[in-house]
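Below is a concrete protein record.
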Amino acid sequence: MLGDLAVVAAARDALSSAQLFYGGRIYDYDSAYEMAKVADTVVIGDVLHDAGIEAIKESARGVACCPESRSIYELNESSWNYRQLSILMFIIVE
């Protein structure tokens, strides 16, 4: 079960100078997209063991496509903000 979005958002909002990472139960586009709305960083990794690289790619797209988040590409064009969203995932060499 994905973490409670309201609890994650409250934890993030309580931080003054730290970045909130969320990981666990991110298994697809929708779960990644929803968590990207409230977490500073979404960690995608466990799904690799269960569903493979295509599920990782789908989840990463969910984070990157979330309008409430800031994609890695946008970070290069704007000033630093500790609330930026990062996509963390293992690089797989095929």
